[in-house]
């Protein structure tokens, strides 16, 4: 039985409750649309938000690891470039040393060849000394003979070795400008030049392999980042088309609820007719 009262308007209370629910749903929908997130904070969905925060941490760590790997790639590229230049200089040094080992050349010719050889060995030392990237030289830095690199967001290490190139390459041929006709043995596979060339080629192979690994890891991390971001989006992103349709429906419900509340608020006015003579 309806209550005819000017103090208690049941119809208005029901209409207000419905309007408040619609207003709350509308605010939530507007929040999703404005932020682009279905789960923007813990209030939206505590469990999903906690998972999303963990994934965001993983993404940040993987991104940071890839940035560091980019620096390592730069270091290895510089190192490989230096070794390639050293290899080229050693090939030239070998060809000039053949002439130095020849006993038929004149003293003037020998002096010229020795000057050329000295320039070549100076170049080899300069290539090694200049193989620095971000202050680190893994061809001429005793502290860099063992290098630990973080390869991913989980803290996994990849370790590679530097190389004492001054000792094992330059020092082997540093006195080549003093070689005489009796120094032909330096040209043999186990001689000074042969040893320097062998050491250089070995390190070119080693550092090339390191560089390939780092580049592969960078690409792998990019794939992981794509997967992490895709999963995160599926977890918390808003379906904008769905929310747009919902927004329009809620706006209509809000308008209807406002009208219903207005009608309910007018109901007590009808009681005045009972008191008219």
TrEMBL record:
The Flagellin C-terminal domain covers 191-275
Indicate yes or no for the key word Secreted. yes
Listed name of the protein: Flagellin
Q: Which UniProt keywords apply?
A: Bacterial flagellum, Cell projection, Cilium, Flagellum, Secreted
InterPro entries documented for this protein: Flagellin, Flagellin_C, Flagellin_N
The reply to whether Secreted figures as a keyword in the UniProt entry is yes
The listed locations are: Secreted; Bacterial flagellum
The entry lists its GO molecular-function terms as: structural molecule activity
Q: Which family does it belong to?
A: Belongs to the bacterial flagellin family.
Q: Where is the Flagellin N-terminal domain?
A: 6-141
